[in-house]
Amino acid sequence: MKICVVGTGYVGMSLSVILARKFRVYALDLSKEKVEQINKKISPINEPALQKYLETKNLDLEATTDINLAYENCDFVVIATPTNFDERTGSFDTTSVENVISDILSISPNSNIVIKSTVPLGFTESMKNKFNYENIFFSPEFLRESHALNDNLYPSRIVIGDETQKAIDFGEMLIQCSERDIKDVNFIKMKSIEAEAVKLFSNTYLAMRVAFFNELDTFAEAQTLSAKKIIDGVSSDIRIGNYYNNPSFGYGGYCLPKDTKQLMDNFKDIPNNLISAVVEANKTRKNFIINSILERKPNIVGVYRLVMKQGSDNFRESAILDILDGLKRFKIDLILFEPFINDSKFNNIEVVNNLNEFISKSDLIIANRRSSDLDHVIDKVYSRDLFQEN
Predict the structure, then answer these.
(1) 165-174 contact pairs (CB < 8 A, 24+)
(2) How many CB atoms are located within 10 Å of the residue 243 CB?
(3) How far is Cα 82 from Cα 87, in angstroms, rounded to an integer?
(4) Distance CA 9, CA 15 (A)
(5) Is the separation of the CB atoms in 111 and 135 below 8 Å?
(6) Catalytic site residues?
């Protein structure tokens, strides 16, 4: 069986690797640099487990930029290209997914097309109608950044937005390539629009949980209370649980900001309060953080890392980016410590990647996630990270 995975980000790369345990897989990407890295067994994303897997496992995997080589006579093509939220239209930009479907059908008109990219509700059905082709189905991913391989190897559930035999076959292939027995995996089959809703509602719930504990932290800080003690007390209730409760500067990353906005757009003609409030709560939290920093009257604010999480190389939609924009509006001098940036400036902010020099120059250091690097100057640090976990 031949499988092609389009896109080599967190979703596409981890999928390529697990599928290549059992099947012939072509990882297709526009970037020649990424393709060369993969073929040299170097992961293009910062995930140590994935790197080790590439180095040590016997995988039937080849990366390429050649769409003809990748698509021709393919049994399944998995689309894992990014779908960024377009503020102008109020919806995901699905151009990349549509272009890929068009290319697939022009080269391999009988391939089964699996959409893993996050899409608006009703998108998969609209693609079937647009291309007059039935073998397109949606299967959401539920991966944590920097844990993508593990989440594919030990899936919490497999959701397939179709009930045809080919769609079921694909779901069973994912389980077969995992470390779990098929009887131990919750394998759920549904309509494509229902599977699309599972993805958006799952991420919006997670965003709501982040926003809830951030607002708890805002209350505690405003009232000079111990947010940590309150959270410990609240989270000890087994119905609430002691997880996903560490305050931050706001939710961010690949999924939560765009997925919450997309779901809010899908709700525009449907009564709701909570979904819209999740998006607004994140804006309010960021404004509170900005004001808390300004109250300290720093001359130079040092920004420790842009990445959303420890162990990550991603700062797309990172909450701290909005914090920086807010501080710049108040003419606050900023410097940045971010080892993943090699340039001397980022958005006109000086990058200082000598840690001691960075600490010395900063009156106040802000950190979305704390690090032992800063333990010796903790009095200089402003962070709402209470539990030192992502």
Answers:
(1) 166/112, 166/135, 166/137, 167/112, 167/137, 167/139, 170/76, 170/112, 170/114, 170/137, 170/139, 171/139, 173/19, 173/22, 173/23, 173/76, 174/18, 174/19, 174/139
(2) 9
(3) 15
(4) 10
(5) yes
(6) 255
- For residue range 54-111, list pLDDT tens digits in order: 999 999 999 999 999 999 999 999 999 989 888 888 889 999 999 999 999 999 999 9
Q: Are 247 and 384 in contact (CB under 8 A)?
A: yes
Nearest to 104 by CA among 128, 68, 129: 68
pLDDT at residue 254, rounded to an integer = 78
For residue 365, the SS3 value is strand
Residue type at 285 in one-letter notation: R
Distance, CA of 379 to chain centre: 32
Residue 331 has pLDDT above 70, yes or no: yes
Give the rounded distance of the alpha carbon of 7 from its chain centre: 14
From CA 338, how far away is CA 336, in angstroms rounded?
Answer: 6
Burial class (CB in 10 A: 0-12, 13-18, 19+), 139: buried
The amino acid at residue 308 is: M
C-alpha separations of 161 from 3, 31, 288, 326 in Å:
19, 30, 40, 41
Q: From CA 113, how far away is CA 95, in angstroms rounded?
A: 16
Long-range contacts formed by 148-151: CB under 8 A, 24+ apart: 148/10, 148/11, 148/13, 148/14, 148/45, 148/47, 148/50, 149/14, 149/17, 149/18, 149/47, 149/49, 149/50, 149/53, 150/49, 151/14
309 or 233: which leads in pLDDT? 233
Is pTM beyond 0.85 here? Answer: yes
Residue 161 is classified by DSSP as B
Q: Do residues 162 and 172 lie in contact, with contact meaning Cβ atoms separated by under 8 Å? A: no
Q: What span, in angstroms and rounded, lies between the C-alpha atoms of 229 and 207?
A: 22
CA 144 to chain centre: 7
β-strand pairing of 24-28 with 61-64: parallel
Q: Give residues with Cβ within 8 angstroms of 250, minimum separation 6.
A: 210, 214, 282, 285, 286, 289, 319, 322, 323
Which of 142, 121, 346, 122 shows the shortest CA–CA distance to 256?
142
Residue 135 CB coordination number (10 Å): 18
| Helix, strand, or coil (residue 78) | strand
pLDDT in tens, 261-274: 999 998 988 999 99
